[in-house]
Structures are given as C-alpha cells and as structure tokens.
Sequence to fold (383 residues):
Amino acid sequence: MERISILGSTGSIGVQTLDIVRRNPERFGITSLVAHSRWQELAAQAREFGVERVVIGDHKHYAALKEALADTRIEVAAGSEAILDVVRDTHCDTVVNSLVGYSGLHPTYAAIEAKKRIALANKETLVVGGDVIMTAAKSRGVDIVPIDSEHSAIMQCLEGEKRENVRNLIITCSGGALRDMSHEELEGVTAERALQHPQWTMGAKITIDSATLVNKGFEVIEARWLFDIEPSKIKVVIHPQSIVHSMVEFTDGSVKAQLGTADMRTPISYALLYPDRAKEPTENFSILDYPTLTFAAPDRVKYPALNIAYECLERGGTAACVMNGSNEVAVAAFLKGKCGYLDIVGAIRYALDNATFVAKPTLEDYTASNTEARQLAERFLRL
Ligand code: MG
Fold:
C-alpha cells in the first residue's frame, strides 16, 4: 500500500485527492493531512481516513482542532515547521502538495531532500524556484509528477517519445471567467464576477489567476522547468471548451493531444497511479457531445500577464518569484474588494520594475525576494 500525505487537504485538489483514495482503499492509505485554517473539515477527514497526524497551518485554530480530536490517537500540530515534519515523515511515500502560493516552495524542497515521490499541484513551487527545485530533484532521483491538467496532458503525450523530437508544447487555455469582456468592462469587474469560471471549479486564488491569465503564464513557466524545454517552444492557445487539455507537436509534423472532461480527478488519479490508470472513469466522455472544438491565439493586449511570464523566463533569476509574490498580494486584495481587477497586473509590473534582481538565487534568496515583492505590491496598491 502506498502511503500518502496531503498538504492542503481541505482545498479543491485535496478533497478530490481524498476521493481518489476513497475509491482505491487497497492501493492507498493516508499518513498525514495538512490544512491552512478549515479545522472542522480537517478533523472530519482525519477521522474518516484514520490518519496518524494532522497539521493546521494557522496556529490560532490549534486548540480547537486538538479538542475536536481529543478522543483519538491522532497527533495534532500547527505551523510551517510541523508541515515540514509531515513531509519528512518516514511513514509516508508520496507527498501531494496542493498548498496555495509561495507557501508550497519549502515543503516541496523538503520532500525532495527526504526523497519522497511528489505529486505537485502547487505550481508556484516551480514558478518561484523551478531551477533550484528541478536541479535538486534530478540530483536526488526524485520524481515530480504534475497534477495540473495541462501538464498531465503533456506528460501523457510525451510517454514513449524522445525529447529531441519535440518541436513545441501547446498549452490550452479556457480564457477564464472574463474572456468575453472588453478592456473597458474589465476595469469595473468585481471579485464575485471574476470567480465564475465557465469550466473548472477551483479555489478562489487560481480562479482569479485564470481570469487574468497569470495562471496560464505560470503554467508556461511550470512547463519550462518540468519538461526542461526552451520557452520559445511553449505556445498558448485559447480553447474555450476545455476538452483538449494540451498538446505536443513533434518534428515530423505529428501532434498528440490529450482529451477528456474538465474533471481534476483525472489528472490527480494519473499522478497517483502512474504508470497505471484508474479503472473506472470519474465521468464517461463522449466526443459526440463536443462537435465543435475551437482554438484561437490569445489577445496579448487584453492579457498582458502572459507576456510578463515569458519576460520573467527570459530574465531568469528571481524575476518569476517577484511576479508570483506581487500577484499573491494583489489577488488577495482584489478578493477583499481593496483593489480593482486591472490593478493586479499593475502591481506585478510595478514590483518587477522595482525589485532587486538576483541572477543565481538560492532558496534563501527566494525568501527575501518574495518578501520584497509583497512589500512592493502593497506600496503600489496603497494597502
Ligand atoms: Mg491548469
């Protein structure tokens, strides 16, 4: 039996990962669960899956969680050091990292050091520190398997192929919740409106990132590191139906695509069961339900975040870390109604233009760069 620990178990990916585990009780067991603040849900999950340990990220819920599990033998802890202990636990084989944002970086690094298999939903790990992370993973022989649907699609298309025969990776993009709005309409858009994603049900931060296309920019950066490919060979196409999850174009002109319904349980189960597959689909798929699949080039003026992501890859060093840190602050402010939608990219631009640049960063440099990026975004947004 494979023993799994989930970082971010009460979020969208965490809940769906537990659903896969529930469907495959003979293959998977849960060692530890980590959540940021939803302690009631965490306690219920811990009881259902009979875990050894739970960690709540936010200290202020520790007492309530401890009390809720007082009649069990489940160990209860709190804080970021305790999360690293979960990752290093010898009772766990695979770490599913579905933490949100920068907070996922250090746990991923600790999982590499502890030589765990990593199923990675926290793309910010690779956005911030892709170079350092992939170099460390390679030197320790650690597998990082993507949970992101686009990267899962690319991984499936690359199975059995030689890397030298890859011409382009083509990442598909739904266009997000605001794809049909004009630039003028975007100015006044509310968080409530931006949270209405047409295809995918996801957490708040990634849904806003999808609307701005910051998420797609991050996925370009993620693909660059995950598949060790030059940025110029990574293309983005708008595909509003979200049925083709991504494609790979080869040197002979052949293109492979992976298709299916927009259900994250497919890439999650692929990551957990690879090279095997789940025996029953989460949902049956009929191509006849989708007689029209359309593709279009993204509007680079309406979506400046995409160009910024390529710019960060070109600059290298701490640039993408600054993009990520400033975006986190701006998205949180937007969700609270403290800034406008267009201010998100404004804050990213301001932070990138003013942040200290480190060309060959270490893990500690990322910490400093993330802090500075957050401060710059706060200054720009007058928070
Ligand atoms: Mg994705």
Summary: The longest strand covers residues 28-35.
